[in-house]
Amino acid sequence: MTTLLGRNILLRPLQVGDFPAWREVRRRNHDWLTRWEPRKLPGSPDVIEDREAFAVRCSARQRERQLGTGHGFGVFVDGYFGGEINLSNVQRGPFQSAYLGYWIDQAHAGEGYTPEAMVLVSRYAFDELGLHRLQIAIIPRNRPSRRVMEKLRVRDEGVAQAYLEINGQWEDHIRFAITADEWEQRRAELCRAWVD
Fold first, then answer.
1. Which helix (H) or strand (E) holds 48?
2. 184 contact partners, CB below 8 Å, separation of at least 6
3. Mean pLDDT over residues 82-110, rounded?
């Protein structure tokens, strides 16, 4: 199991045993999170309330890791679950790219854990997986997520109109990206500032 250790956090894949802590955080953060997420499909199991559905989700993430198509991590602060960060839709061939998404418990928002997690996952993506590019898409009004990009000075590539369905609406997203060349130039600075 891949574990990434930072200055203040530990990242590791979620396991079925994490369900009670995951459920508690997701329940408590319902209003904070659902406004930024796709709407749940009618008839689909509720991974927040159904342990079996959460177990299936964990198995699916494990399968993605085995296939090399995704790498999901729980964010743990002082040993307690506090959020997630995920590399998804890893594409190889000439693209060598992935999407990076994250969420954090509102109780920890603004404490620097998300930028730290992003630097840890970026180091893993570029140095271990050999990816060329990471992309992050954020709804323009999502100020907390945009602040993460500002703190890390991740390049803004412009607005993609009606990019993703979020909570039942097609939402514009600002697209941010960092390439392996940019990472190479900034690795020491970012790691010194956030993880070492």
1. none
2. 126
3. 96
The per-residue pLDDT for 39 is 84
Q: Which helix (H) or strand (E) holds 44?
A: none
Q: Distance between CA 63 and CA 25 in Å, rounded?
A: 25
Query: What single letter denotes the amino acid at residue 134?
Result: L
Q: Which CATH number goes with the domain that contains 178?
A: 3.40.630.30
- The overall average pLDDT reported for the chain is 95
Ordered strands of the 80-91 beta sheet: 4-5, 9-12, 71-77, 80-91, 97-104, 133-138, 169-179, 155-166
The total number of residues shown for the chain amounts to 196
Number of folded domains that form the chain: 1
Structural domain for 165, as ranges: 4-194
* DSSP secondary structure, 142-191, as one string: -HHHHHHHHHHTPEEEEEEEEEEEETTEEEEEEEEEEEHHHHHHHHHHHH
CA angle 137, 60, 102 (to 5 degrees): 25
Query: What does the block give as tokens for 103?
Result: 């969420």
Task: State whether residue 51 is helix, strand or coil.
Answer: helix
Does pTM top 0.90 for this prediction? yes
